[in-house]
């Protein structure tokens, strides 16, 4: 069995939850309100990834945004300001990086995020995902609270 590394904040949160007689994965997520600082901070953490892949300027349509303590899951679609469509064939992910446009499911971005100090960090992410990449069991060690449909045992 390979040892797994878990961030100290996650271990401390789990220990605190167990000390209170609660399962660490029992905590459920909330969706930060539109206009809230939490929502803005989460989306701002994704912005550089979206600009790198789809080019500037971008704004997000939030498909799913989940927050529980110091972890979050985001699923967004990038668009041009005012709702303009992004042409994937002309986006940097294709033009610069050589990705095959047919293998990119639109200008979507999904990320598993963790808070580090005062900022959110996308720890794992997928651009134009065509599958449910975040359903990988090792992610449950950290992100179970925001992925209950993939991490709950029953």
Describe the structure.
- The protein has a single domain (28-151), classed as Nuclear Transport Factor 2, Chain: A, CATH 3.10.450.
- The protein is 27% helix and 24% strand.
- It is built from 5 helices and 4 strands; from the N terminus they run H-H-E-E-H-E-E-H-H.
- It has helices at 8-19, 37-54, 92-95, 140-143, 148-151; strands at residues 59-68, 71-79, 108-116, 119-127.
- A 4-stranded antiparallel β-sheet has the order 1-2-3-4.
- It is globular.
- Residues 1-25 have low confidence and may be disordered.
Outline of this structure?
The chain is an alpha+beta fold. It has helices spanning 8-19, 37-54, 92-95, 140-143, 148-151; strands at 59-68, 71-79, 108-116, 119-127. It contains 5 helices and 4 strands.
């Amino acid at each position: 069995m390979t040892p797994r590394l878990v961030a100290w904040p996650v271990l401390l949160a789990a220990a605190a939850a167990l000390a209170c007689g609660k399962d660490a994965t029992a905590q459920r997520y909330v969706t930060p309100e539109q206009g809230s600082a939490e929502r803005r901070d989460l989306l701002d953490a994704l912005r550089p990834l979206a600009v790198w892949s789809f080019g500037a300027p971008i704004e997000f349509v939030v498909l799913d945004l989940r927050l529980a303590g110091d972890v979050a899951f985001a699923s967004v679609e990038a668009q041009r300001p005012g709702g303009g469509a992004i042409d994937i064939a002309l986006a940097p992910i294709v033009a610069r990086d050589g990705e095959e446009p047919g293998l990119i499911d639109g200008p979507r971005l999904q990320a598993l995020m963790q808070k580090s100090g005062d900022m959110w960090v996308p720890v794992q992410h997928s651009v134009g995902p065509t599958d449910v990449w975040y359903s990988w069991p090792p992610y449950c060690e950290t992100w179970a609270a925001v992925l209950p449909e993939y991490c709950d045992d029953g």
